[in-house]
Amino acid sequence: MSSLPDFSALEAGAITASLVVDHLGSAQGALGNSHGIGNETDRQLLLWFRSNAEVVLTSGATAIAEDYKMPSSCDLAILTRQPKGSFSIDPRDRKLIIMQCDFTEGLSKLQELRYRRIHTEFGPTGFIELSRRSEVDCYLSSKSADGVDQFVSKHELAIQDRFDLPDLFIAKVAGRGRA
Asked: Whole-prediction pTM value?
């Protein structure tokens, strides 16, 4: 595996959220998931977030749409209404946590389980909800600066900082009430 680029300039906190969008600001491509809308740098960004986390938190819908596998460096928590056996994810030597709650409660439950470094990977609904929480650093990425701007405008988010790489545009964003 190649070494990860240095994304330390993002100054990500203990709880992070990431979302990739296309040039129109959509988080779904032709396949109904994020496949094909990111690039290798975006994949490396996701791996960087995961390498800094003790657990990844996602939804059952995202896990199914994205065909989730167990992260190699941390545990995985899934918010769902489905029974645990609904997911064919092999936890290997890691923990697979299934919870029936909302996005915010999921974070709280993981903190009660003593997880401090949490990375969240939701679709737009979860990402936007978490962007309103001051303890969550939310990062939006796209191969196009227009994609970032369109998503931010459509969902009334505020850009706190921008990080432009040669082939990826990243914005730290916050929801209403968190400028």
From this structure: 0.91
Side chain identity, residue 50: R
| Residue 131 dihedral angles phi and psi, to the nearest 5° | -65, -15
- Rg of the chain in Å (alpha carbons): 15
Residue partners of 83: CB distance under 8 A and separation at least 6: 98
CB atoms within 10 A of CB 78: 25
57 Cβ neighbours under 8 A, 6+ residues apart = 77, 78, 79, 106, 107, 110, 118, 119, 120, 121, 122
Position 114, amino acid: R
Cβ count near 41 (within 10 Å): 17
Residue range 152-161, pLDDT digits in tens = 999 999 999 9
- Other C-beta atoms closer than 10 Å to the C-beta of 101 total 12
Amino acid at 132: R
CB atoms within 10 A of CB 24: 13
